[in-house]
Amino acid sequence: MNYFTTSLMKNLIANDNNLPLFEEAVAELFRSELEKSINEILEHELTLFLDYERYDRSNNE
């Protein structure tokens, strides 16, 4: 299982048949994973646009 599946299972077990709490926990998990994914995509696009990796140093300092 990956991190996302493991987190879903932990939330399901922790909320013990309390559907509103489980739905809230799953919504927060989806939100945080979506935020991570979007940030990774934006960072990659910025790297491609600038044509160098983050924290790379140039030779003309």
UniProtKB/TrEMBL annotation:
UniProt name for this protein: Transposase, Mutator family
Species for this entry: Sharpea azabuensis
